[in-house]
Amino acid sequence: MTWITAVTAIFAAAALGAAVWNRLHARRVMKNLNRMLDAAMAGTFLERDFDESLLSAVESRFAHYLAANAVSAQKLQEEKDKIKTLIADISHQTKTPVANILLYTQLLSEQALSQEGRDCAAALEGQVEKLRTLVDALVKTSRLEAGILALHPKAGPLAPMLEDAAAQFIPRAAEKGIALALAPTDAQAVFDPKWTAEAMCNLLDNAVKYTPAGGTVTVEVIPYQMFCRVNVTDSGPGIPEEERARVFQRFYRSPAAYETEGVGIGLYLTRQIAEGQGGYIKVSSRPGRGSCFSLYLPRL
Q1: Regarding predicted confidence, which is higher, 265 or 85?
Q2: Quick one: pLDDT at residue 244?
Q3: What is the 3-state secondary structure (H, E, C) of 118-147?
């Protein structure tokens, strides 16, 4: 029985040793994987830092995967840099010609022209303004999508930003005979003041544009636990149900609004701004009874 006990002890010791070795090996593998992930997240992963002869099959494949991801990330950054350069070139190359055309159009309208000539000069000036608005909107949208222009949300009161945005449209509303009202609020949210003001101006521009004379446009803030809801409500013609999901698409124009001034990019840019700072935008409407665009901004 002594030899049986000895053999049993040997097998038990071997099993224990194998278990300890497997545990140590698994621990080493996990440490290597963890080190790879840390390097990948820090952007410093290099496949040559690891000796494949010492890695398990899983570690080796994982190293190849991270190396491929690093190459993809580098290519993506290179593409973003190209887009950034292209946008900068477009912005620079178009601003000066458009400004010059607008200047010469204004000078032309000051000359002694026939009524037909004055009408043509006025039409030309309107088209140049539309072109400038389109180029500016495209540049802003492209920069946001490419991550070139970053949003910097911070906690602050909404009232100053809303008051500045509304003040830009009060004269136009008054000219059309529209009552534009901003409800007082002391609510705070987390938002980028500059870009959120851009979003609000897009909403107010649409509201004033589509509201007929004698109508109303109101801006109010409703605070919730997680979000602040900024409503821009008009008494315009409303939006048919089948079109509400499409109004935030780039260049979408409702058939009913085809003759109204605009290029169909304002609401798309507004949605990009909202989503870029952790918010979102919704629309509710009843044809013939106006629309309400709700911009949700996070409070935390």
Answers
A1: 265
A2: 80
A3: HHHHHHHHHHHHHHHHHHHHHHHHHHHHCC
Indicate the pLDDT class of residue 295, thresholds 50, 70 and 90: very high
> Which residue has tokens 């979000």?
227
Distance CA 200, CA 106 (A): 30
Region 43-65: mean pLDDT is 54
Tell me, what's the pLDDT at 117? 82
Phi first, then psi, for residue 51 (nearest 5°) are -90, 105
Place of tokens 């980028």: 192
Q: What pLDDT shows up at residue 298? A: 95
Q: Model pTM greater than 0.70?
A: no
Whole-angstrom distance, CA of residue 165 vs CA of residue 216:
16
Q: DSSP for the chain?
A: -HHHHHHHHHHHHHHHHHHHHHHHHHHHHHHHHHHHHHHHHHT---GGGS-GGGS-HHHHHHHHHHHHHHHHHHHHHHHHHHHHHHHHHHHHHHHHHHHHHHHHHHHHHTS---HHHHHHHHHHHHHHHHHHHHHHHHHHHHHHHTTSS----EEEESHHHHHHHHHTTHHHHHHHT-EEEE-----EEEE-HHHHHHHHHHHHHHHHHHSPTT-EEEEEEEE-SSEEEEEEEE-SS---GGGTTTTTSTT---GGGTTSS--S-HHHHHHHHHHHTT-EEEEEE-TTS-EEEEEEEE--
Residue 251, sorted as left (phi over 0), alpha (psi -120 to 50) or beta, turns out to be: left
Determine the pLDDT at residue 267. 87
Structure token digits, residue 250: 């780039």
**If pLDDT is split at 50, 70 and 90, which confidence band does 201 have?**
very high
Instruction: Determine what percent of the chain is predicted with pLDDT higher than 70.
Output: 64
**Bridge partners, 229 (sequence order):** 222, 296
**Euclidean distance between CA atoms 60 and 217, whole angstroms:** 63
* Count of residues making up the chain: 300
Structure tokens at 235: 């008494």
